[in-house]
């Protein structure tokens, strides 16, 4: 798998604090697997962030049937995509 950093606006919908769907890169996405919560340890290594940061990794599929795996995290400005994996 190849990680691809991308900057786009992200709107994330959650149910019970778990991602269910999103709007990202001009497309609507539906979460199509069980999201995995990412803890501090992965972010401190991958993103250079210090403690307290969490995020999610999940597969999502758009209306055309294309699927990607996303690593997303929240900050003061809202949710962001850290990486996508094809």
What would your notes on this structure say?
The chain has 86 residues and is mainly beta. It has one domain. The chain is 8% helix and 56% strand. Strands 1, 2, 3, 4, 5, 6, 7 and 8 form an eight-stranded antiparallel β-sheet that branches.
Features:
86 residues, mainly beta, globular
What's the total count of β strands?
Answer: 8
Report the sheet with the most strands, covering strand number, pairing sense and barrel closure.
8 strands, antiparallel
Number of helices: 1
Which descriptor suits the 3D outline? globular
Helix and strand string, N-terminal first? EEEEEHEEE
What is the count of distinct domains?
1
Quote the average pLDDT.
83
> Beta-strand percentage?
over 45%
As a whole number of angstroms, the C-alpha radius of gyration is 12 Å
Helix content: under 10%
Structural class computed from helices and strand pairing: mainly beta
Termini gap: 7 Å
Oligomer: single chain
Poorly predicted spans: none
